[in-house]
Amino acid sequence: MITQAPWLARLGDLLRQHAKAIRALQWLVVGFYLTLLVIPAFLDLPPAQARMLDNLTVLAQFIFWGLWWPFVLLSMIFFGRLWCGVLCPEGSLSEWISWRGLNKRTPRWVRWSGWPTIAFILTTVYGQLISVYDYAQAALLILGGSTVAAMLVGFLYGRGKRVWCRHLCPVSGVFALLARLAPVHYKVDEQRWLENREPHLPTPNCAPLIDIRRMQGNADCHACGRCSSQRGAVQLSARSPNSEILIVGGQQQSDHWDSTLLLFGMIGLAMGAFQWTVSPWFITLKQAAAEWLVDSDIIWPLEANAPWWLLTHYPQANDAFTWLDGAVILTYIFGASLLVGGALWLLLRAAVRVMRRGDNVFQHLALALVPLGGAGLFLGLSATTVKLLRYEGLLLAWAQPARAALLIGAVAWSLYLAWNVISRHGGNGMRRLLAFACVNAGCALVGYGWWLQFWGWS
């Protein structure tokens, strides 16, 4: 067994030793989550002058979209997927019901590695169509629907496992990418594991279905601590936040879905989803389409008669999308995904071509953009935080400088990772510089997109 473990390793052991307390905490989080998710959906829409301290709906909106989601994302970068393993209500409910379920074998189609990417795209786009950040009914539909699906999957497949979290959760792919940057991880000494020295702790139940002995990195680990000190070979340890991208990312055969989610989802799609509400390009596109429809005597797309669960429809709040609104939103978001993601894909392919390397190096180089992708998501989600706090009368003069610092820092981090990946795989000096120039162009493109949203169009 591990003796004289450092404080970080002892912290991992505490998670294992206090499993009952963690279960109690999980149920408290579940109760808090369901209260804020369900009750506001059955209340009247808050008046325009409503504030957090006098209206539950506004308070729930701020907690979910102003605090919960942006800072859960941020926690992945600092602590790995600790949220998933210790606090996530969906994961807790899915695992709880799987102990009482049918225990069926997980079918191959569920284990398809593309589901997290597809689910992230669909939920992101659908959320924009029904204004999930603004209305409690929409939040209940998307978050509540996801929770019900997680419990259904847990009831059908596995015994005490989190099949939903491993294969189907809409944010599991995003969390897996961001957790690679965490400065802590559960380090496994495979040689010590194989030596199998006595005494043994009871075999842990790894809910996310990981082969603990061969585990490298944070991508799939939920950091729950159940395997801490197992066979004296597993302990919570500090590491460089760059190590999993630079070392593990170069050793493993990366799935092309990681790069697809990162380039076309976390960066391209997310930029379009956060940007369309302030984009003059969106207005120009919508006006041009409306004029063409009127000139063509096609009027029905200009009607705002869709149900609220298909397109935003709250006439009592003077907020109702027309069919044209929905079509233009889809066009803008998917257009941003294809244009920005496609440009990044081409630039990275060009970099790899210059280095005369293959697809595995492309996948490795793409991972260098994880800091930039994570920063973009945090900037977009925290825009809701800033908006809601300003409604409360706070000026937040520091918000713009903080955004600039975050964006510049993320670009610098991604470029640092990219240079090290290129140096690891590249050829002579000129080839390295040309490949690095391609990555610089990609980072500049993404940075320009966020500059437009927060400075250029403001």
TrEMBL record:
GO terms for cellular component: plasma membrane. One of its GO terms (molecular function) is 4 iron, 4 sulfur cluster binding. This is 4Fe-4S binding protein. The chain crosses the membrane at residues 21-43, 63-88, 109-129, 135-157, 261-283, 329-352, 364-384, 404-422, 434-452. The keyword Transmembrane applies. Keywords: 4Fe-4S, Electron transport, Iron, Iron-sulfur, Membrane, Metal-binding, Transmembrane, Transmembrane helix, Transport. Pfam families: Fer4_5 (PF12801).
